[in-house]
Every structure is written in structure tokens, then in C-alpha cells.
Specification:
Blueprint (H helix, E strand, L loop, with lengths): L24 E3 L2 E3 L4 H12 L14 H10 L6 H11 L6 E6 L4 E6 L1 H9 L10 H4 L3 H8 L3 E4 L11 E9 L6 E10 L7 H31 L10 E5 L4 E5 L16 E3 L3 E8 L2 E6 L6 E6 L5 E5 L5 E4 L2 H13 L6 H9 L5 H15 L3 E2 L4 E2 L3 E6 L28 E4 L3
Parallel strand pairs: 13-18
Antiparallel strand pairs: 1-2, 3-4, 3-7, 5-6, 6-7, 8-9, 8-12, 10-11, 11-12, 13-14, 14-15, 16-17, 18-19
Length: 425
């Protein structure tokens, strides 16, 4: 396997420090100088898709699409702070930072003028794609696959053109939903590998998440300032929410953190308030009650495709759930008022607590489907919600391995749950 010379330097990307080539693990006929399973798996995927290690040609998006992606990204207001902190705190002249979106598209970058020229030579420019399909094995690609901080050094990169580099990357998750919204990556010459590079990338990612949370808090404050007065003229309970259903202000009720995203002329039920109608106000929505706030009775029918029917507000509604979401509802019903944390749900669903991001993303999607029937911190049925479950013996097939149950967890979900589970008002 050839060496590659880092543009603008006299150094070569020799991976000899990574181990004896004679002892290297092999993916098919390609030597991989590492025993790391995630790198081996990435190389295997590259081989399976016919990637050429001698061809480094990341795809590029047109400037207009790059602009749109920047504007839509949750980091739109915080990326410049990441660039500024990187520039002000980094004393390594041979270090480059890139901020990518969840698709691996580079949206922002920073570094010395010399290293930006190196980046240009490697096509590490705004709008270039660094997912596995475009650039095979890189730290960015691994984060997209595993959602964990990682580092790729020298010849662990699949493409020869990247052998002179080390790259560390960390995921940025949207604190509101838990979903991957971006990736911070640091790159430098392999001979200048910094042991703390992965920790540095993770710290920058944490700063990014802090910026997202701060921008969201400011947007809710602006909505409250500009439209909060509209609540004063309403008789009865009402909510002021943003476009995604996050509550900015309330009147006459104990407000949840969020409700289902409102839609024009579509009634939605909010526990503790009742059936509400949505009226758009500026960048947000005013939700006011138009129906009685009777006790909420929800029925989860598992005799076939999981279906949730909600009654008690004078305007019944129904939605089809995924089997995973039906499983989560059953777990929350079993937990009753005490609820379940993300870590506990991870253990009950996957058998360990290492899937917090997946759990939070699933809970975000479930709450969008059922609105304020659920509440958080910890996750649980909302006050006053009664859940009935109808199922037959084959409704939840344990052979599908929905649930890995630890010794101290509830029974496997292959027994009858007929009856009701209630969160007291």
C-alpha cells in the first residue's frame, strides 16, 4: 500500500506505528492496520460497494443547497461561535476543524490559512460530502454510523489520499429530540497526532449542543415577548407554542414541555386542557380550548397493527403506531407514576444503557405521534390518562426480540396486558 505525501509538507503518512503489517487484520484481500471492529466494518462496506482506494473524489453540493442546509440546521446560530472558540483556543497551527450536518456535508470549517489550503487540496471544502458513500472510511463516516466520538489515524482511512492525516470526530445531538444534527471533526498530520484530539472534538460537540439549546431558549423567549400578550384576552386555559410544539407560555393550566406540532384548522387534544384549536401567530401558534377537558381514556389495540384510540374529550382520534412505540407505551404503563428514565428504557429495550440517543429519538417520534399523552423527566403517562390494552396471545411475539429483559426488569411482553393502567390526576 502506497504512502501519500501531505500537501505542503515533507511528511509521509506512514501507519507503521499502528502495528506490524504482517499481523494486520484483513477484510477480504485488503489489509487493515487495526483491530478496531468499527473500522473493519467500514472497510468491509467500502469493499462491498466497490470503492476504489486510489480514487478520492467527494461529491459536492451546489452553493444554493449548502446555503439552505446551513439555514435549516439547528446549529445555524451557533456554528460561528464554534469557529471562534476554535480559533481563539487552539495553539496547534496544523489543526483543521470542520462542522458537518447529519448527512456528512461540510457546512463550516476553520483553521490556519496553510491548513485551509491543505483542505482545499483534499476537497475538504464547504459543500463536500464525507459520508461513507463519498469518502469511505473516515471519522465523520464512523460517527454517522455509530453516533459516537471516534478517531481514524493514517492508514485506517480507506482512501490513500487521506493516509497522511488523523481525524477525530464527535456527534452533535439536538437536545430537544436527541437526534443527530451535526458532527464536529478535527484533522491534522498523522505525525502530529494529539492524544486528546477525540476529547477536544467531544468538547466542541458539547459546545454545539449548548448553542442549540441556547438558541431554542432565546426563540421561545422572543415568541413569548412578541405574542404572549395574546394569552391575556383568552378565557380558559391556552398555550403559546412554537412551530414544533414547544411551549413558550401558558395560561390557566399546568403546561407540558411540548405538545404535538400544531396544524391549521386541525383540532388536537392536550391532556389537562382538552380539545384545542390552533391559530398561527407570527412564528408560533396559539392553542386554545374548544372542547371539554374530560378524563382521557386511551386504548392500545394490539390485535394486528398497533393502533391507539383516544376518547374522553368529545372528539375521538386514532393513530397507528410502530411496534416499537407500542412496546414503549406498555413499558411506561407498567412503570405507572414513577415513569422511566432514558437509561432505564435503554436497559429494558436493548439490555444495556448504551442506547440513550436511540431511546431519546424514539421518544421524540412517539411524542409527536401521541402529543401530550406522555410527559417527560422521567417519561411517563400524563396525569389523568388511562390506558387500556387489548391484545391476543400472538400480538407481541417474543421471537421478534423487541425486548431484552434484565433480571430486575418487568416480565417479557408475551403475556396479556388486558385491563387498564392509569396515571392518577
Amino acid at each position: 500500500m502506497r504512502r501519500s505525501i501531505l500537501p505542503g509538507t515533507e511528511s509521509t503518512g506512514d501507519a507503521g506505528s499502528l502495528g506490524d503489517r504482517s499481523q494486520a487484520d484483513v477484510t477480504r484481500d485488503l489489509p487493515v492496520p487495526t483491530a478496531r471492529k468499527e473500522v473493519l466494518a467500514s472497510w468491509q462496506r467500502a469493499v462491498d460497494t466497490g470503492a476504489d482506494a486510489d480514487k478520492h473524489a467527494p461529491r459536492h453540493l451546489p452553493p444554493g443547497e449548502v446555503h439552505d442546509r446551513r439555514h435549516r440546521n439547528a446549529l445555524a446560530d451557533g456554528a460561528h461561535r464554534l469557529q471562534r472558540v476554535f480559533a481563539e483556543t487552539t495553539d496547534d497551527p496544523d489543526l483543521l476543524m470542520g462542522v458537518f450536518d447529519a448527512d456528512g456535508v461540510l457546512l463550516w470549517r476553520g483553521g490556519t490559512s496553510r491548513w485551509l489550503r491543505v483542505a482545499d487540496h483534499l476537497e475538504l471544502v464547504e459543500g463536500s460530502r464525507w459520508d461513507e458513500e463519498s469518502t469511505a472510511t473516515t471519522a465523520v463516516g464512523l460517527v454517522m454510523s455509530d453516533h459516537r466520538s471516534t478517531r481514524v489515524v493514517g492508514q485506517e482511512h480507506f482512501n490513500h489520499a487521506l493516509h497522511s492525516l488523523y481525524c477525530a470526530a464527535a456527534p452533535i445531538h439536538d437536545p430537544r429530540s436527541g437526534q443527530l444534527t451535526g458532527i464536529v471533526s478535527l484533522a491534522g498530520p498523522v505525525q502530529g497526532l494529539q492524544p486528546s484530539s477525540t476529547a477536544f472534538a467531544a468538547s466542541m460537540a458539547a459546545l454545539g449542543e449548548h448553542e442549540i439549546a441556547g438558541a431554542h431558549a432565546r426563540s421561545l423567549a422572543d415568541l413569548r415577548k412578541n405574542a404572549g400578550a395574546r394569552l391575556t384576552g383568552i378565557r380558559g386555559p391556552a398555550l403559546l407554542v412554537d412551530a414544533d410544539g414547544w411551549v413558550a407560555d401558558s395560561r390557566g393550566c399546568t403546561a407540558p414541555d411540548a405538545v404535538a406540532a400544531p396544524m391549521e384548522d386541525i383540532h388536537q387534544f392536550v391532556p389537562g386542557i382538552g380539545t384545542c384549536v390552533a391559530q398561527q401567530i407570527g412564528t408560533g401558534w396559539l392553542l386554545r380550548r374548544v372542547g371539554p377537558a374530560n378524563p382521557v381514556v386511551a386504548e392500545l389495540d394490539l390485535r394486528g397493527e398497533p393502533t391507539l384510540t383516544v376518547a374522553g374529550d368529545g372528539d375521538d382520534w386514532q393513530t397507528v403506531l410502530t411496534r416499537r412505540h407500542a412496546q414503549i407505551l406498555l413499558l411506561l404503563a407498567e412503570a405507572s407514576e414513577s415513569g422511566l428514565t432514558s437509561a432505564r428504557l435503554s436497559r429494558l429495550i436493548f439490555g444495556d444503557s448504551g442506547h440513550l440517543v436511540t431511546v431519546r429519538a424514539e421518544m421524540s417520534r412517539l411524542r409527536r405521534a401521541v402529543g401530550a399523552l406522555l410527559t417527560s423527566r422521567p417519561y411517563r403517562l400524563a396525569p389523568g390518562v388511562t390506558l387500556h390494552v387489548s391484545e391476543d396471545a400472538s400480538a407481541l411475539d417474543p421471537a421478534e426480540a423487541w425486548l431484552t429483559t434484565p433480571d430486575d426488569g418487568p416480565e417479557p411482553l408475551d403475556r396479556h396486558h388486558a385491563g387498564k393502567h392509569r396515571r392518577p390526576a
